[in-house]
Amino acid sequence: MSHKLKIAGWISVGALAGALTTVSLQTVARGQLAPLPLEELQQLAAVFSMVKTDYVEPVDEKKLIQDAIAGMVASLDPHSQYFDKKSFKEFREGTTGRFVGVGIEISQEDGLVKVVSPIEGSPAYRAGLKPGDLITKIDDSAVKGLSLSEAVKKMRGEPNTKVMLTIYRKDENRSFPVTITREEIRTQSVKGKVVEPGYAWLRLSQFQERTVDDFAAKIQEIYKQEPNLKGLVLDLRNDPGGLLDAAVAVSAAFLPENVTVVSTNGQLPESKFIYKAAPEFYQRRAGSDPLRRLPAGIKNVPLVVLVNEGSASASEIVAGALQDHGRAKILGSQTFGKGSVQTVRPLGPDTGLKLTTARYYTPTGKSIQAKGIVPDVLVDETEEGNVFAVLRTREADLEKHLQSGQGPEVKDPNREKAREEARKKAEEEAKKGPNDRKFPEFGSDKDFQLVQALNQLKGRPVLVSKTQVVEDKSAKKDN
């Protein structure tokens, strides 16, 4: 690649993962500093001195400076961030898909942590935790009242340390403690299977360092089981994004060689770049192209991509590239609208700065910042409709979000009213038993959107949404 960019990224964890996900480019810090506003810096120094000498009790100087930096960066947009030692470590764990913990995928239910699935081979898996188990205590801390991210932090820790989880197992109507030794966990970002003869489903939950290798291996596995594949559903629902090179590689697997996948544009010369469907734009090691192993049929197999409001950043790059090149039909709901690029620069051995440095654009030049990808076919989450979609936070809902750069935004006056109605429905849904709730597991035979995607591939009628409205936040201009 002509300019010396090392591609990196971040994957956030928690209920608002889609809202805080970035696609990142890591560059060498610029050699020349911008001119400094001396008068304002003197005011900053004066305030620091007054706080240090006059505040009611002694203050930590280092914390004061760190908070000042964090506040300055946080005032820019929702994705720029100062990393202290702890958050920088968590950031780097996110890009690798590795962390130290017990190894469970979790959600929340009735204020408790629910085990969605233990990761195969993990300490939690070996300890016998099952899907549906509820965690009521982590060590001596009650889970009720904790946010999902707070619970995650309590379960993570250093390798070979122990954590005691108190489990309530509904089907056995009993509670019991389980002591688990933490170890390094490698998350699995790729799932897939042949769902019926001739048709397969492939889900990407994040774009991490291992995603492309795992993606290539899963495609090979599918073709080995079903050599005459007639159609493939690429599932990017609730995929918060991650590494840019992984998004370019997944797009390149389906596209003709050397076509444009995504472009970026910002103030820095190195932020003005076009990424193409070729190995030099995604391979991490010279001569190592994981896509070489893919069957030739993957370039032409009929393809449907599933997206929703939780599909963000790298997911939107893939969906936008495949849509603009006419390679796939995009089906589902309008995506999150995270169309900005963050550069991560170290400030020292264990601190760093994540700064928004560019917008990214689909191959036809569309900015999806605060807009998102609009599906070719709008399909609801369930047969009853998109019950709770309006409750989900999108990029345009975030304070201080970057605008698209392609026209001013227009607010929807009916959105808050729709949210209130959805909140009432959510409360009613929460009172139901697990078997009566509307949202089955992605990839199951009761997955409504997957069924519609298969209908699309087979040329059968698709149950198109009657309620979804495309949110175009930019004002229309007269031609």
From TrEMBL:
Biological-process GO terms, alphabetical: proteolysis; signal transduction
GO molecular function: endopeptidase activity; serine-type peptidase activity
PROSITE patterns reported in the protein's UniProt record: PDZ (PS50106)
Stretches with biased composition (Basic and acidic residues): 409-444
Pfam families: CtpB_N-like, PDZ_6, Peptidase_S41
Keywords for the protein's UniProt record, in alphabetical order: Hydrolase, Protease, Serine protease
Alphabetized SUPFAM superfamilies for the sequence: ClpP/crotonase, PDZ domain-like
Region called Disordered, residue ranges: 399-444
Gene3D superfamilies in UniProt: 2-enoyl-CoA Hydratase, Chain A, domain 1 (3.90.226.10), 2.30.42.10, 3.30.750.44
Gene Ontology cellular component annotations, sorted alphabetically: outer membrane-bounded periplasmic space
Classification via SMART domains: PDZ, TSPc
CDD domains in UniProt: cpPDZ_CPP-like, Peptidase_S41_CPP
Domain PDZ: 88-170
PANTHER family named among the record's database cross-references: CARBOXY-TERMINAL PROCESSING PROTEASE CTPA (PTHR32060:SF30), TAIL-SPECIFIC PROTEASE (PTHR32060)
Family (UniProt): Belongs to the peptidase S41A family.
Protein name per its UniProtKB record: S41 family peptidase
Organism: Ramlibacter albus
